[in-house]
Amino acid sequence: MILCTRCSKNAEPLASPPVGGQLGNTIQQSICPECWEAWLNQQAVFINHYGLLMADPDDRKKLREAMKEFLGFSSQ
Ligand SMILES: [Zn+2]
After folding, report:
1. First CA to last CA across the chain, in angstroms?
2. For the chain, how are helix, strand and coil distributed in percent, rounded to 5?
3. Helix axis angle, 57-71 to 21-30, nearest 10°
4. Ligand 1 is a single-atom ion; what residues have CB below 5 A from it?
């Protein structure tokens, strides 16, 4: 079980890191599946709203920053 840093609930962790790199491990250890699901919904809205292209490294960076903020990692 993990203690989710976003909603402060205990939950089973995600089955695998949802994104690559150290950030994925951090998310798996500190974000519950429910909050991750909430981000996936928000991500779709964000991509549509800003017309982000996942082929564009700048847009991917923007999305990553938005994700960190959403999950409460913006200070890291
Ligand atoms: Zn949570």
Report:
1. 23
2. 55, 5, 40
3. 20
4. 4, 6-7, 32, 35
pLDDT digits (tens, 9 = 90+) for 32-45: 999 999 999 999 99
Helices and strands counted in the chain (H then E)? 3, 2
Reported confidence tier of residue 74, pLDDT bands at 50, 70, 90: confident
Cα(52) to centroid(ligand 1), Å: 26
CATH superfamily to which 2-71 belongs: Fe(II) trafficking protein YggX (1.10.3880.10)
